[in-house]
Write a structure and sequence with these properties.
This protein has helices at 44-53, 99-125, 139-143, 166-169, 228-236, 284-293, 296-303, 327-330, 334-343, 381-394, 407-416, 435-438, 452-461, 467-484; strands at residues 18-19, 23-29, 58-60, 66-68, 71-77, 80-85, 144-151, 154-159, 191-197, 201-206, 219-225, 242-245, 260-274, 308-310, 356-358, 364-366, 368-374, 399-405, 421-427, 487-499, 501-502. It is an alpha+beta fold and 523 residues long. The radius of gyration is 25 Å and the shape is globular.
């Protein structure tokens, strides 16, 4: 398959923003990154920096579809995928890019996952709780069984998971084979590092060996701050031209006369999880009733100040992935909710305002649920959401107890199924495949959801080689999700790039790629 670079769709520039010229100063939050290690990122904002310095075989375009970057073309036969590299590729130190570099980088990623899994297995054998770091690009290991170089420009992947999703896993940054353990390894991106003072600043300059048209913006200075509020302050007092922020408070700057706000979607999917192995949430009627009662739009607008992108399924609304024909399942409808609870045998027999019904032993049990919630530092929106859900459900005969826990405690509760309701978030992978949270028994299926129909659909998805068939199956998965109500998807969290200088014309600004398009921007 021949790969072509997509044409950039030009958007009208807001009157408030002047076009960037040859430099840009950006404020970010960073306190933990001590070295430039693109295969081992530890801070979100640095991922956007690495995105400018390092290219992969594939890149995800504005339509959230994979297209070639370092690869010129690819083909597949059975479980073998062959990628042909462009013949004009050089690292920022001037050395040529070869298939051996791709192979070495891929194997480094795969071996990191294998070592982490071995450590995890040993800890479990000792009955120890341990969280192992498998790396941001760990999904590659679950696709690829082996990778080899046929010649200097040809890379061959043998795969275990043989489907369209593989192309998303091949967006990992390619490094020189001899520099995988180095700090600041040479890259193939539009920019390279000139200077770095951890916790203070990082200067990028244009890479003279980049394989595409040299960027207009020759220099990007990143100024680092310990706290999110300090990033906002630096922008407010014009110490930086642009700022990356996920703070809810940043919404107040969106209406400024000299400022442009570029909203971006994160990969953080906020959900209300419901434990199917716990009474009364083992009843679909009760789960659906909760879905019809909770007004997610209110949460999005009034609690999160609109700093979200709404979705009713695990996939991004408005994209080719999303099934937009399921709205009737997700509309707030208290009348329908109460009918479902009545059908399930719930009523207020003693007029105390709480619904009840007899259990298998004939004893009366109340419709009472514990709602677990954990918070992020300096951010109480999830607790506000929990209080709203509690108030809403109690208005219709539920009794809800909010239990606040630490993140580590929440992970433990979800892992062993020791909860009823939980407000939590998933860090969604770049590959549009939700099998990890929907297939029975999978590690991310914290709801203990079991559906043979859903498992079959997720397995079928992993056989689709082309985008149209993949999309059709994704839509079927979402229809099954709507019917079964395994849990409630609320929204993807969003953030904002505040800037006084327009630097991009891309339509889809995404977390981890917040300066995407600056390399192509022209006055």
């Amino acid at each position: 398959m021949l790969c072509l670079l997509s044409a950039v769709l030009l958007l009208p520039l807001p009157a408030e923003a002047s076009n960037v010229e040859d430099d840009l100063v950006v404020g970010i939050q960073s306190s933990r990154t001590m070295a430039i290690r693109p295969l081992e990122p530890i801070e979100r904002d640095f991922m956007s920096i690495y995105d400018l310095m390092y290219d992969g075989l594939m890149v995800i375009n504005d339509d959230y579809l994979p297209e070639c970057a370092l690869a010129e073309s690819y083909s597949h036969s059975g479980k073998t995928w062959t990628f042909k590299l462009r013949d004009d590729l050089f690292f920022s130190d001037g050395s040529p890019v070869t298939a051996d570099d791709v192979v070495a980088t891929a194997n480094w990623i795969i071996n990191k996952v294998k070592n982490a899994e071995a450590a995890e297995k040993e800890a479990k054998a000792r009955n120890e709780a341990v969280v192992v770091d498998k790396g941001y690009y760990m999904n590659l290991k679950y696709f690829v069984s082996s990778v080899s170089a046929r010649d200097d420009l040809t890379v061959v992947f043998k795969v275990d998971r043989n489907y369209f999703g593989l192309l998303y896993a091949l967006t990992f940054p390619v490094l020189p084979a001899g520099a995988l353990e180095m700090d600041n390894p040479p890259g193939t991106g539009a920019y390279m590092m000139e200077s770095f003072m951890p916790g203070n600043s990082l200067q990028l300059v244009a890479n003279p060996h980049w394989w595409r048209t040299p960027p207009q913006v020759k220099s990007i200075l990143f100024v680092m701050h310990q706290l999110p509020a300090q990033v906002i302050e630096a922008y407010e007092y014009a110490r930086v031209d642009a700022a990356f922020t996920r703070q809810i408070a940043s919404a107040q700057y969106k209406s400024g006369t000299a400022s442009l706000a570029l909203d971006y979607r994160t990969n953080q999917l906020e959900c209300l999880l419901m434990n199917h192995s716990a009474f009364p949430l083992n009843s679909k009627n009760v789960r659906e009733a909760i879905r019809y009662l909770v007004n997610v739009d209110y949460i999005a607008q009034q609690i999160y100040n609109g700093m979200v992108e709404r979705t009713n399924t695990p996939f991004v609304a408005g994209s080719w992935m999303y099934n937009d024909k399921l709205g009737a399942y997700f509309r707030q409808d208290p009348t329908k909710a109460m009918a479902l609870l009545d059908e399930d045998g719930w009523s207020d027999t003693n007029d105390d305002g709480i619904l009840d019904k007899p259990n298998d032993k004939g004893d009366s049990v109340k419709l009472e649920l514990d709602l677990y919630v954990y918070e992020e530092p300096d951010n109480d929106v999830r607790l506000e959401t929990a209080n709203y859900i509690k108030d809403t459900l109690e208005n219709y005969g539920f009794a809800v107890n909010i239990i606040t826990v630490s993140y580590a405690q929440a992970v433990q509760k979800l892992s062993v199924g020791a909860y009823e309701l939980a407000l939590a978030s998933y860090a969604m992978d770049v590959c549009p495949d939700a099998g990890f949270m929907l297939i029975a028994g999978n590690t991310g299926n914290y709801s203990r959801y079991r559906s043979s129909a859903m498992t079959d659909l997720c397995s079928e998805l992993r056989t689709k080689m082309e985008q149209p068939e993949y999309q059709y199956t994704l839509h079927a998965i979402q229809e099954q999700f709507a019917k079964d109500c395994p849990f409630i998807c609320m929204f993807y969290r969003s953030g904002t790039v505040l800037t006084r200088k327009m630097y991009t014309t891309v339509r889809d600004v995404r977390e981890l790629e917040l300066l995407k398009g600056i390399e192509d921007f022209r006055n």
